[in-house]
Amino acid sequence: MRFVLRQLAKLVITVFAVSLITFAMLFVLSKNGSTQGRNQIAVNIAGIGANDAQLAQVEKEYGLDKPVIVQYGKWMGKLLTGDLGVSYATNTKVSDAVKDRLPVSLWLMFWAQLIALTAAIALGTAAAYRANGPFDRAASTFAFGLLSLPHYVIGVVLQLFLAVKLGWFDAVSTYASPFDSPTRHIKAFFLPALTLALGQVAVYMRLLRADMVATLQNDYITMARAKGMSTRVVLFRHALRPSTFSMITAAGVNVGALIGGTVIVEQIFDLKGMGSLVVEAVLRRDLLVVQICVVIFAVAFVVVNFLVDMLYTVIDPRIRHARGLA
Amino acid sequence: MSFALVAAACGGSDDSSSDTTTGGSATTAASNDTGSTTATTAAGVAQTTTTVAQKPKPQPGGKIVIGVDSETGGAWVPAAMQCDSSCQLKIRTVLEPLAAFDNDAVSHPYLAESITPNADYTAWTIKVRPNITFHDGTPLNADAVLANLNANLNGILTGAQMTGVKFSTDAAGAKVLDATKVDDTTVTINMLAPWVTFDRTILTGQAGFVASPTWLAKAESDQVAKSQPVGTGPFVYSSYAAGNNFVVKKNPNYWRKDADGVQLPYLDEVEFRVIPDGTSRASAMRKGDVDAINLSSGDEIKKFREQSKDFPMIEADQLGETAFAQFNFTALDGAFTDKNLRCALVAATPRDEVNDAVQSGVTKVANGVFSPTQPGYLADNGLPKYDKEAAKKFLDAYKATGKAVPKIKISTTTDQGNGTIAQIFQAAWAEVGIESDVIQMEQGALITNAVTASPDFQVMLWRIGGGYLDNNYFWWHTPADTKAPIQLNFGRIYDPKLDAFLDANRAETDAAKRKTIAEDMNRYMASECLTIPYWWSLWAIPHSPAVQGIADTTIPDGSNNVVAIGQGFPGSFLLNQVWIKK
Hints:
The structure holds two protein chains of two kinds. By secondary structure, chain A is an all-alpha fold. Chain A has helices at residues 2-28, 35-46, 52-62, 68-80, 94-129, 134-147, 151-165, 182-215, 219-226, 231-239, 245-268, 274-283, 287-315, 317-325; strands spanning 86-87, 92-93.
């Protein structure tokens, strides 16, 4: 329990730090709170075409005439109560945009991770079982090949062949909920998720293979084999679980890379998720939306890594006990 | 991606025998600014449609999805919208203007029943049609017209178009039109000076849209309400997700019926889906993800021409835009105020190569900001041709004044084609000894740099709206306050000669004389190398064979309105008579 609380405390501190930095972004960009700077912040929020009344409204809404700490408190207070503000660039609620776009990116990352982990477990286990054999060498070469390819190359190639030439999938993805239309959901997400997943497969596979090769040298594996257990049972029931630590750690850390990947992949497939939202917001200098997106990305990253930490204790009870003793 | 900041009004009834446009009358005999009759003007319209020759009976119902090339900045209050072709296409489903064009760029009353000038064009009287209500139940009347025109007068973009109207300033500093409410449906607007083309310049475009005054008042204090427009149009706003889609649903109480008395519109729902990349948009069209798209990429237009059996396509360049490079006269210590430097850049630019490389030669190479169907167009206006030796001579003349040749920033949008153009410019200029950097940025940032004349804006790739000369008044005329931080005369080109052309054109009642003025201005701009024009835009609407009626759309008096939605935005079309063949 103490371990969980400690991790939770770390999570809260990280989120607080990120929110502070993100808030400061707008403030620093706007001439450090001078009267001129204050107006500049209002102009940044309201847009260049805003008239005096609109600027005054923004100043009041965000407390721009108050000390910085008060401004931060006001901003954080709104954030915590779910009031993400209104984008003056689009005249729409930021919360509406997030509500529309977040599921798209979450599904994209979910499918990408699922594809990557499933493929990595199959390939990594097979490669470890016959380490240094022809399959292992071929899989390693394939993995390094995939690692060297950036998302935008994989995405465009997949789009060209599987969508444009063969017409199997959508070239331009339109979000459909899996609960409303599973077929359209798969058609929309398969290529973007595969694009994101392929690079991850290589990383996960290499890590799993290395750990499993070591695991397979353990005495208890020899014992299991001596008892006459099948290869499948030995590999998947006894060897896999203790070999997944590095892979799971990487999967947690890779959430950051996945978020970065969604920015590129959503652009390629015109998928309207958080990645494309942040790109649109950056390009139109919509700082409020950029701030919210950065906070959401940061929170997602630390929450996933918190869950990964929790997962360790499920996979290996020794960790839970060791931490409990400490 | 095309963009024009303001929906400057174009084309209109410029009948030298009658200056009154009256609702319900088809003014087929009217002549326009080209000085020719409507019949001959129509020949100048590049319109190709392969929709069925025999018109089947429209079938009401259904939904279509249209892929559009851009999101709209400042959506959807008319005074604040940055309204390009896609914006016009979208917003005209909800908001309607007081006047509109037919295919020959002749203006006709739309929400107005009549639009009449006084004898010397210093006052215009607008009478709106009776018994029309906005989607929120507010009646369309004289008060609604005044509320909208006053709001637009105070908009940065629309206000810049309305520079010729008379106004006062109220206690709060807001501009108030000098206008008289004649009766419940009629208002008279007073001008500062004779404004012959007020009806088509102002009333057909963005400044002529009439939104619900109730909604406008609400949007003053409610930011989100701004994105939920309320008009009189054939469709009612349903939802808007910026950067994604804009959805409208059938207005069951729409005031218009078709020629057979069937209630318009035919469609139940229209979704506009933003797909900025031209290739992705075309791909979505081919795969059936969308039912129609707007397109200005020469490469894709060429491909769709070859697929005309599968995808009927309407092409339009009437009174179209010009793609050109704009100089900022305040940048680089005023380097571009020197004509020799400008002419060196014009002569050093291989405009044919640009057109071939980016537009596959589909569009015509431009020689000025007057496209072939615009009054003022000249086949040879004297613009220096591509000639490296001539460019070097101009540059030598510039250097002879003791000035150093600056390193120039060429700024443009993130569009791939625009990047290619900028790189061709960069390479060609380097050959004559002018170094440059290419800077690509989002369109909104580009516009911000332009309206503020940021030092980062030195040479900018841009498109100017088409239409008639008066529609482009504010782009080239010296503003009342030259110190204003935001100006639509992007380049800060304060030239008394340009001002004289523009003012004379605005006050001239004779269409033939206006044409001459526009031609003189074209020659002057070419001789001064004020821009580097490279092509005249062509827009196309490829669509699914099931989508019917794009070419049959009419305005209230029955005139056909397909390509001339106006203001140099030929990529737009009206949706009130579009239907799906089941």
